[in-house]
């Protein structure tokens, strides 16, 4: 597990999965069909526990134009800059279960931001970085 710094906020557009975890891959496929291709566009998966104990999941793509949300009918979210725990999974399509395992390991850390989310950053078609924001400690 690494500690990394995300140096800037990332504005993304989100498409919610209808049923977690069953429709995650279909949701990512649908989002990629909706989004205009661009070499600078990054793709993510965002998940968070809900009060009822279920998990909400969104496939997300970096917003490159402020009009995209309205044009595509997607909701906006900002992945917050800050310090994160990160586990990289290489060759993830063959190791899908390792994504959940990585987040379970990260979430055991005592300084996880309770209002944070689990971020899957799809670096390319083979590698994913599993990230969870840490609490920023302030000095008294």
Structure description:
With 140 residues, this protein is α+β, with helices and mostly antiparallel strands. The protein has a single domain, classed as Multidrug-efflux Transporter 1 Regulator Bmrr, Chain A (Alpha-Beta Barrel). The chain is built from 3 helices and 8 strands; from the N terminus they run E-E-H-E-E-H-E-E-H-E-E. It has helices at residues 24-34, 68-72, 97-106, and strands at residues 2-6, 10-16, 43-49, 55-62, 75-79, 82-90, 118-122, 127-133. An 8-stranded antiparallel sheet has the order 1-6-8-7-3-4-2-5. It is globular. The two termini are 29 Å apart. The mean pLDDT is 92.
Q: Could you write a compact summary of the structure shown?
A:
It contains 3 helices and 8 strands, in the order ββαββαββαββ.
Features:
8 strands; globular; alpha+beta; Transcriptional regulator; Multidrug-efflux Transporter 1 Regulator Bmrr, Chain A; Reg_factor_effector_dom_sf; 140 residues; 3 helices; eight-stranded antiparallel beta sheet
User: Might you state the CATH topology name?
Assistant: Multidrug-efflux Transporter 1 Regulator Bmrr, Chain A
Low-confidence runs of at least 5 consecutive residues? none
The top-level CATH class is Alpha Beta
> Total domains, how many?
1
CATH architecture: Alpha-Beta Barrel
Compute the number of helices.
3
List the helices and strands and how they pair.
Layout: E1 2-6, E2 10-16, H1 24-34, E3 43-49, E4 55-62, H2 68-72, E5 75-79, E6 82-90, H3 97-106, E7 118-122, E8 127-133
Antiparallel strand pairs: 1-6, 2-4, 2-5, 3-4, 3-7, 6-8, 7-8
């Amino acid at each position: 597990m690494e500690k990394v710094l995300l140096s800037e906020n990332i504005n993304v557009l989100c498409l919610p999965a209808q049923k977690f975890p069953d429709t995650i891959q279909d949701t990512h496929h649908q989002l990629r069909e909706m989004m205009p291709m661009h070499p600078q566009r990054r793709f993510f998966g965002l998940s968070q526990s809900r009060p009822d104990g279920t998990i909400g999941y969104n496939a997300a793509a970096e917003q490159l134009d402020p009009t995209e949300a309205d044009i595509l009918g997607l909701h906006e979210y900002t992945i917050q800059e800050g310090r994160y725990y990160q586990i990289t999974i290489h060759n993830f399509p063959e190791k899908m279960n390792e994504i959940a395992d990585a987040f379970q390991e990260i979430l055991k850390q005592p300084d996880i931001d309770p209002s944070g989310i689990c971020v899957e950053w799809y670096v390319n078609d083979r590698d994913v970085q599993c990230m969870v924001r840490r609490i920023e400690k302030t000095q008294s």
